[in-house]
Amino acid sequence: MKIAIIGYGKMGKEIELEAIQCGHQISMIIDFNNSNNIELINKENTDVVIEFTNPDSVTNNIIYCFKNNIPIITGTTGWFSKLEEISKACTLNNGTLFYSPNFSIGVKLYFETATITSNIFNNFPEFNVSIEETHHTQKIDSPSGTAIALANNILPNLSNFNCWKKSEECDNNSLPIISHRINETTGIHSLIFESESDRIEINHIAKNRKGFAKGAILAAEFVVDKKGIYTMSDLYKKINK
Prior knowledge:
With about 240 residues, the protein is α/β, with parallel strands linked by helices. The protein has helices spanning about 10-20, 60-65, 85-95, 105-120, 145-155, 210-220, 230-240, and strands at about 1-5, 25-30, 50, 70-75, 95-100, 130-135, 165, 175-180, 190-195, 200-205, 230.
């Protein structure tokens, strides 16, 4: 498979290594210093695009791939408010998009565990529930896309809450998300249940970026010959058969 990489930061470099290790070819690398070269990506030289950039660039990159009939995988966060607009463009252009705030298979399993656990703890109102996330200081969005996805995943199981909010903006009806930014931390997410007597944490700690890169490559392989919009839930169903 011929893969074009848009965004050549730490994740882009890790994806390049993982793709080559899996026997794929890198057709092109686009970064901020040669962003105009995206117009060189076409169906003849590229089978799929993997994109990790920023909220200001991602929608244009997605639309470009739609119009050129190239499936695109994106791990960029901070643009999900435009998902309805992107969905319409996908249908209009018969495009292919796989998006996720986190491509780690371990994180998907973590979400499955958190869903079951939150449903159990909902029967014990003496436990307060919160989410904490810690990332490197270069991460732009806060809370992280993964923390938001985790919150949205468990909210239907928590009858005391109707939404999530940043901890400093929280009220009694909202699930608090606490964010920390520390040096080169790859990513830590914690679901916390706390009473006067106990504190129970379910943690996911990313030891490195390899798990994210591996998941992105699996997503790229998954969307070959598919049309429409997909997420890690679709990939998980295939893997978990």
